[in-house]
Amino acid sequence: MRKIAASKFPSMTSLRCFETAARHLSFTHAAKELYMTQSAVGKQVALLESILDCNLFIRHKQRLELTPIGERFFHDTQDALNKVEESVLNVLAHSHAIATLKIVSHPTFCARWLIPALKGFSKANPNIHLDVHDQVGDFIHTDASELDVGFLHGHGVWPGMASIKLFDSHFVAVCTPELNPLPMSDPNCIDSVTLIQSRIRPHGWLDYFASANMSWEGVFAGPRFDSFYDVVHAAISGCGVALVPDIFVKEELQTGKLKLAWSHMLERNGAYYMVHPSNKSDVPHVKTLIEWIKQRF
């Protein structure tokens, strides 16, 4: 990558002035937010345009308008400044920490299982800063470069990763107590309910009924949601019958918010694993978290 000469690198002040002015499309409003004068903001933006050798704004009499290249630069600048701000806040909040542990998990698993499992970890290990990220999809192949520990559903084999099985995944069909689906043996059963769909497991209902030796039309119809978290809450709201891992609805089943729509359970559908890069097996803070999670069983 071609490096930029120091004389061509914009100052943080110029970038902040440009981002604020672009967000408001006004030097006046930007000046108020930044506690600067309007002319000072304008001079910083003009300096930035001089360094970049292009116009970032079209200056109308009463307003500003971003040029096409200014629009692109605005979004890039926002991302960069947000990243800098996040890094500064991390240092201020965790300057005492010896190590930062980046954990990646699917959102519902994080909310329903991982967060309760991490209770007390920071107090017991004050020199380890937990940096937990929610991510949907196969993050092992898309964002594993800085991963320390991840939590995944699958069959335990991912390239470059060591995996530790946590527990099997059993899917159950749940609904509110007010719904009374017909028995699965009834030919009209599927017509009596709305099947809540999940984009994470698009073939879930097909697999569920197939495992019960049943073949029905319409198993892909119904409202579709991105996460199991949404699917669970759709069921609680009475939108229909949801098919979800049993660990995500244990509390709702115990408190009576939800009930089993049918007793049948989909069992052979992978398991939940804790994973980490194979080359980090001996990293102290990774080992500390692994042992902490293992003690939860």
TrEMBL record:
Domain of life assignment: Bacteria
GO biological process annotation, one example: DNA-templated transcription
Pfam families according to UniProt: HTH_1, LysR_substrate
Record domain HTH lysR-type: where: 10-67
GO MF annotations in UniProt: DNA-binding transcription factor activity; sequence-specific DNA binding
The keyword ATP-binding is annotated on this UniProt entry: no
Keyword annotations of the record: DNA-binding, Transcription, Transcription regulation
Residues making up the signal peptide according to the UniProt record: none
Family annotation (InterPro entries): LysR-type_TF_proteobact-type (IPR058163), LysR_HTH_N (IPR000847), LysR_subst-bd (IPR005119), WH-like_DNA-bd_sf (IPR036388), WH_DNA-bd_sf (IPR036390)
Family: Belongs to the LysR transcriptional regulatory family.
Protein name (record): LysR family transcriptional regulator
Originating species: Pelistega indica
